Amino acid sequence: MRQTLLLDSSYYPLQMIDWKKALTLFFTERAEVVEHHQNIEIRSTSKSFKLPKVMRLFCKIGDIHQVKFSRMNIFYRDNFTCQYCSGKFIAKELTLDHVYPKSKGGKTDWENIVAACGRCNNKKSDTLLCDSQFNLIKKPFEPKWLSLFLKKLGQSEKILWKDWFNF
What we know:
Blueprint: E1 3-7, E2 13-18, H1 19-27, E3 31-43, E4 48-57, H2 71-77, E5 94-98, E6 113-117, H3 118-124, H4 145-152, H5 155-160
Parallel strand pairs: 1-4
Antiparallel strand pairs: 1-2, 3-4, 5-6
């Protein structure tokens, strides 16, 4: 695992970065190392450096609490689960569905889009929920940045950074 958790100046987690970017931030004096990976070193022809596990930027980043609306972020928010039949799927087997159909004036936003399997999406078509046989597992919402960030971490990453997050 050669990734580094990048924090802003107030220790708020920003993102996971690769080791090259981490060392670049360190050598250009834009960030400090808070913690190193155990027993992982990056070697050049003449020097060896411990790989940063957690780094903190010296500057504060602007408002990052807004989550970008995207297909993959919808899938992560909904745990790759069809919001109609509760089936778990991989990304390429899921579609996005407008709960309130676009043909009837529904918006494309966090509160009206859910992950749906192709079968359920085709069956629901452009009908309203009240006119269909479907019920939502949970009401769609705009996720908080940190909760979505934690959902995107793999199990091995969660174990690696368990000291930094309260799961």
